[in-house]
Amino acid sequence: MSAWLYYVSECGYSCADLNLGCPSPTVTRRGRGSAMLQDPACLRSFLDRLFSNTLPAALSIKTRIGYESTEEWPVLADLFADYPFAHVTIHVRTTREQYTGAVHPEAFELALQKGIPHPVYNGDLRSLEDVRAFAARFPTAEAVMIGRGLLADPALARRIRGGKEAGKDELRNWYTALYEGWKDRFDRTIALGRIKKLMEWPSEGDIRRKRLLRRADGIESCISAVVGE
Ligand SMILES: Cc1cc2nc3c(=O)[nH]c(=O)nc-3n(C[C@H](O)[C@H](O)[C@H](O)COP(=O)(O)O)c2cc1C
Predict the structure, then answer these.
(1) Does residue 227 surpass a pLDDT of 90?
(2) Pocket probe mutation, ligand 1, options 91, 128, 182, max atoms within 8 Å of Cβ
(3) I need a labelling partner for 139 at 20 to 30 A (CA). Which of 64, 122, 208, 212 fits?
């Protein structure tokens, strides 16, 4: 049952993360990723068997707050509170909600109340203001995970620690490097679509910038739209 964890340990890792948050149909169709949230009894028996051994490495999980509905969260939260995870990253959306729409921060509140070990908040922390508002609402929270916010603003982690904003050159280099990486991996159209989606985050509320970005037909015009000349 835990043979794979020995392999993880032999590779030099001290912690493995079980991804119960992935909503991709290619994963959930096979009953993996967030599909495991659909059957809490089965998930409990999986975790019981896993933790019945002395594990060679720590285990953490990343989870959604339900598959179909947020109403599933109290049962799942009780379940996760029963195991000695190194940490539990909670993307405060259901699988059905994918990556968009309003997040459910009250689910994180429940995680704290239920005593889930070392809960890590995840979902839509886009800016320094968002992180500050989160910290004010949840002063006992130990950590957050930031995904797209960091891709959109490469200086976000630095700014959270009191550092300076990204300058124009830093932003230009960052977006260009991301675009080039995606272009090599996928193709130009997909890479441009991805970079535009990402750049929409800091452009939200700025209609002029959004319009310029929508019209942009290359990485240079995308960068000009968002960063300026
Ligand atoms: C395009 C895309 C790909 C992602 N791929 C993964 C992945 O491979 N593994 C994972 O655990 N999460 C993945 N995520 C989810 C992020 O880790 C994160 O949970 C989600 O984006 C919410 O956080 P954010 O609002 O800070 O971006 C992905 C998200 C996006 C938008």
Answers:
(1) no
(2) 91
(3) 64
Alpha helices in 53-163 (DSSP H): 73-80, 106-114, 128-137, 148-152, 156-160
3 vs 16, 19, 74, 115, 184, CA distance in Å? 13, 17, 31, 29, 36
Q: Ligand 1, atom 16: nearest CA belongs to which residue?
A: 147
Q: Which residue has the CA at smallest separation from atom 28 of ligand 1?
A: 147
CA of 61 to the centre of ligand 1 (A): 14
Q: Under a CB-based contact definition with an 8 Å cutoff, are residues 144 and 134 in contact?
A: yes
Is it the case that residue 136 has pLDDT exceeding 70?
yes
Quick one: tokens of 167?
């300058």
- CB-side neighbour CA atoms (13 Å) of 160: 20
Tell me, yes or no, if the pTM score tops 0.90.
yes
Residue 203 has pLDDT above 70, yes or no: no
Tell me, what amino acid is at 154? P
Summarize pLDDT for 63-99 with one digit per residue, the tens: 999 999 999 999 999 999 999 999 999 999 999 999 9
Q: Which residues fall within 8 angstroms of residue 159, CB to CB, at 6 or more apart?
A: 128, 153, 165
